[in-house]
Write a structure and sequence with these properties.
3 copies of one chain form a homotrimer. Chain A is an alpha/beta fold. Chain A contains 12 helices and 9 strands. The first copy, chain A, has 2 domains: 139 residues, Rossmann fold, CATH 3.40.50.1370; 153 residues, Aspartate/ornithine carbamoyltransferase (Rossmann fold, 3-Layer(aba) Sandwich), CATH 3.40.50.1370. Helix content of chain A is 38%, strand content 14%. In chain A, helix 1 crosses helix 12, helix 5 packs across helix 6 and helix 5 packs across helix 12. The interface between B and C is medium-sized, with 26 and 29 residues.
Chain lengths: 319, 319, 319
């Protein structure tokens, strides 16, 4: 099957998911991101790689934090950025998604950063562009439903590589609400591609997908068991709306069993790193002592996230 | 009577309406727009004509699509663009429209792009600027009530000229809800000025203004009659809020009589072009087969719209 | 006590309040602002002083007008500006204020312009940055609760100096709702620092703070008495929500006693200037004849406000 993310030369055409993305492309993105982390330290944090390009933040679902990271990345590459909160716009007037896209293409868009509550919306747009021969326009998935959030996955990979270098010697634990996470699947796909030999998933049965076994991971319902000897702990955010529902007894109960405390973290390797995609629920999935402690690399993740997004954008549309 | 859009040298001072705009100015805008269509094809889609100028998108009524076109046009001219959604702002605090304008002028605004639900608001602002001697600040009407939407009219003229060259040999039909359209009057005014010998208006009596005869057009209630032999079909958008009201039986009924289908379009000249201002209601005023067919020039309209807005902005405030 | 606004070299590190700001710094800001008023008159209103710097407008409370003035100032200094309406963002997801700030810092923010309904929020952020050793990131208070709004105070000082030169010979009256004003305290602090020998406060008892006497001002409940012989009249905005409450009988009653009319203004010196922070409630705290009359310097205040904000931003983060 043709991978819709790659063009006929095997180069990145769109970034839709990390699932199925070749290892060479994954590594290339991380390699290209590295020097961008240095740009951010400079007095003038600007590069002209996307100068005169029009980047549309096409957000069908509100997410100020994610929008901000893409907006900063695009502006540091000197692009013109247009923020479109589409939920309040043309779709309300009965226009179809693809008519909206066609219109923006006709305004000479170069890139769409797409956030949508429905899984697959960025694919639909990418396929439409391909079908209509507009190969010069690129799509970046900024989160679609429960499906994927590939730049979050990439920044996590960048963070792990930064601190641990060699993926092929690591034990990595993904902890929490895998079922509702759009990050977890991206993570597991990427970790597998990059050669991580042991991936563990830790969480209560009600928050793990039923097909979790087919993902090639080890499942643990006991967090202490799962954390033993791991190099990397990837915490997932527990969404507020799950807390008072049927899936969980209470956030206190959740914290007791699956909240990351110093006590539980002590079971991991001493130099284990702790990741979290943010925003954190302190005292629910993570204790403040861990969030602010020496093993946490949560803020570096954010910094690397800008660099990774700059890398993806410049690979797709850079001159 | 003095035309408030022109300065004492007869040059464009504000763009408020196409009604009464001299043919020379109309043609000048279209001429200046032409090279801007090429800028959009370039690798770096930027010109420094408005560098350091402050353009305020002063939207008293939400319209993401229109705001976006002006924002792109201004950014491609290197202006600083400030988006002000005024409905949620100072007017809510009891400030008058002209106090808001005076304040923004005091911030050294160079141009106001004004969208307002009330007919005449952009005029009020332009007259206020003139009365207070602030000739260096310009107003572009981005849609005021039912009155005018001149850049939409201009991009339609640009599109017709692009495909048909000579206005003086054309038969043009304007189809649909003329009564509530802010585009239709601009269109008819401009087509007349540019020398179109036959302008037809097609629609049900309930959606045509009572003074339609005084506009120098031929009125048709039978769409098939009206489309016979036309060179240009300008479809109007049927606003959702009209559909379930007293004016129309139903959208299905409307489509049957006034929806543009391939079948009805076959009565026009074979090389007739079909325009629509968007967003389209597919299956209401236009059939998908026409919207996506070979006669439609709906997406080129959008592209030309950016060039026309760049032309107007650079004529008004360009250095 | 260490002044958190100054660094160890006594230079401006954050701008949080005018209260306690040394006279030398106050005067320095006004001096630096002066040439920026000329930038705004130029054809290209741009300076590269903040090029490549990332300025975050962090608005926890909506204020389009204030946000616009900072956005313009930052853009004229060539900064990248990111607008964050935080009320609708991460805090809704349960993230703490300081986690939000840490995240934005990790995106290499250079400056936060903070607006918050709670007094002290900008301090909390500034202290957090200091405690965590991030001296290269600066905070500007754009209004916190009833506490302070220092750039408004600064632009008023600039305006007074522009028209009256020497502060040490002036009688200044501050009129209206001092109790709920975040401007009034800043004003009084700055006027005192700059050597104004007589500051009067005029208003009904219900709208004056109980500790008003400790501010070193003369209190007047009779506006005519208070205005006699003053050089400067600083009107405060009466907030709508006060008008129908327990504190005031009605807006007509208020206008009768404390609204600035030509009649009352005649008691001040003939060349007295009238300031108002906007937006004005014409016919409530100020009569239109005064607002549009020869003594009003309300629009120049706005112009100077941009220059003052450019001065503060370039002092904090300029290269």
């Amino acid at each position: 099957m043709h991978n819709p993310q790659l063009n006929k030369h095997g180069e990145l055409q769109h970034l839709l998911t990390l699932d199925g993305l070749p290892k060479a492309i994954l590594s290339q993105i991380l390699d290209i991101a590295a020097p961008f982390t240095e740009v951010a330290e400079r007095e003038v944090k600007k590069l002209p790689l996307l100068r005169g390009k029009s980047v549309f933040n096409l957000f069908f679902e509100n997410s100020t934090r994610t929008r901000t990271t893409f907006e900063i990345a695009a502006k540091r590459l000197s692009a013109d950025v247009i923020n479109l909160n589409v939920s309040t716009s043309s779709t309300a007037k009965g226009e179809t998604l693809l008519d909206t896209v066609d219109n923006l293409c006709a305004m000479q868009a170069d890139m769409f950063v797409v956030r949508h509550a429905s899984s697959g919306a960025p694919y639909l747009i990418a396929e439409h562009l391909q079908r209509t021969g507009r190969d010069h326009i690129h799509v970046v998935n900024a989160g679609d439903g429960r499906h994927a959030h590939p730049t979050q996955g990439l920044l996590d990979m960048y963070t792990i590589r930064h601190y641990k270098q060699d993926f092929t010697k690591l034990t990595v634990a993904v902890v929490g609400d895998v079922l509702h996470s759009r990050v977890a699947r991206s993570e597991i796909a990427a970790l597998t591609t990059l050669g991580v030999p042991e991936i563990r998933v830790i969480g209560p049965k009600t928050l793990l997908p039923t097909d979790i076994d087919r993902m090639g991971v080890h499942v643990f319902h006991d967090m202490r068991e799962g954390l033993k000897g791991v190099d990397v702990v990837m915490m997932l955010r527990l969404q507020n709306e799950r807390m008072n529902g049927a899936l969980l007894p209470s956030s206190q109960e959740y914290f007791k069993f699956y909240g990351l405390t110093q006590d539980k973290l002590a079971l991991a390797k001493p130099d284990a790193i702790v990741l979290h995609p943010g925003p954190m629920n302190r005292g629910v999935e993570i204790d403040s002592a861990v969030a602010d402690g020496g093993n946490a690399v949560i803020l570096p993740q954010v910094t690397f996230g800008i660099a990774v997004r700059m890398a993806v954008m410049s690979m797709l549309a850079g001159s």
